[in-house]
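Need tokens for this chain, all 590 residues.
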Amino acid sequence: MKLSLVFAPIAASVVALTTPAAHAATFTVTKTADTADGVCDADCSLREAVVASNVDDLADTILVPAGTYVFSIAGADEDAGATGDLDITGPVTVTGAGAATTVVNANGIDRVFHVRSDLARVVFEGLTVRGGTAPGSGAAGYGGGVYGFRSVVDAYNCVFTANSAVRGGAVYIEAQGAEPYVTALHLSGSTITANTAVTSGGGVGLFAATARISHSTLTNNIATGNGGAIDTGLFSQVEIVDSVLTNNEAGQGGGVYENQSGAAGLVSFRDSTIANNRAGGKGGGVFADSANTVFEASRVRDNQDSVSACCFNGAGISAEYGTLQIMDTEVTGNTGADSGGGASIFFQTVTIQGSTISGNSADKYGGGLSITFGAVTIENSTISGNSVASAVGDNGVKGGGGIGWNRFGRSVTTLTNVTVADNTSGTEGEQLSCSACGADYPITLRNTVVAGSGTLDNCLGVIASEGGNLSTDVSCGFDDPSDQESVADVKLAALAANGGPTDTRALQTGSPAIGAAVPANCPAVDQRGFQRDGMCDSGAFEANVSVDNFGCGEDLNGLRGQLRYVVEEVLGVPTVGDILYCLGGLAGAA
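Here are the structure tokens for all 590 residues:
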């Protein structure tokens, strides 16, 4: 007995060593017909391949050749893939021959894929997912194309189109209970177009999930409620990179609706475009409701909201109760029915840096920005050419073609090296309007240029100066010895690409803003990211760019805002042909 006990573990080890290791399988679909005989062999449908893959927990692969795979087996209430949608319960990669040639069509009988992989990864690549529907209540109404529950779903080079659901017309991903950020969605190189949702997330719906959307396009999706392209849901973390969200529509958040991200949640846009989206209510482009949001090197343009019944709408961006950062971003051409053509800020902590807010319009106040109960810092930015249509205003506020602060006041705002110019409102306070501002909730300007039409007051309300400011009239009440008022001509060039990520208004030769700033308050660089010198300029644009950055023999034709600008505008010397800079000085012009 003792001998058998001694050798029992060794015998078990020998058995383990001789047992062959399991390997992931590859299933090849051989027909487009929707059959379900339980076997995937030489005669294998897509449904049969999915069911076969579910047998093990290994990362299998399903190869789907070119063709249109139309579902024909009705039945939406079972979860084994035998009827209705294709239920996936383990890790698998479903690979098509390309979205243009491999099409999986649910034919309106159910959603397309139901992913229940228990946190395992499911990958879709090179296929089109269409014709799915999820009209039921609860989970039965989630994700017309793909519904992922406690799963990680990746989609590479896919198209999701003509799907519908109560939530998440194309895709819906959710966590369970106290498991936020475990489930995830990754979209890359994909297109989500012409999907619809009854309540939220015309394209994509999330709940307590992470998502990364890169190099993708979300267009022409519709949600009756929130988030035409994306509804981030509660407690989600979403990163949108190098993507385009355009022509989407919703009741609120025509492009994106962010809802209660919580302290750890964040939605960020980087190198992305949010354009031509529409909302019946708030946030034609983006509505951040109790959320944390970052825009970086992005473009929010030509979005629209259409309801003017109240306030705080925000055609480009509507941000309430949370944090907002806008960096190196252009907010342009957005049209609001009430206030905040570019952006509406309500109970937000906001930082705007290196950005341009231009060409936006609102019917009542705050053509560029409307601010209510906020802590707002604006630095190295341009607010130009925005407008307010009505001279009457609304909610006790009028004017503010550039920025309008709501009559409730209680906002602390600081502008440092900002150019506020040529905004219009048809009434006093064309550039800056804050009739309720005062010592307790100040509007403070540093090294800022305020340039108006000359026919209506630039400012309405109490403005505090910390020096280095310029205004074309006396309405701002600048009182620091370094300020300049009633400046006849600030000599601002038109808004243009002068280098850097955003358009700026260059200072022309002889501008009184050149060297007029208080150096102690100057940021190290200007809006374009160009170094400021020791005698920095007021406004967002630094004219005195050093020529030391350029090497001998460089061809600088066509470069604006750099060496050619220094020679022609600051030094007043015309140039022809190449500009050469050698050995510490200008060698001449060829």
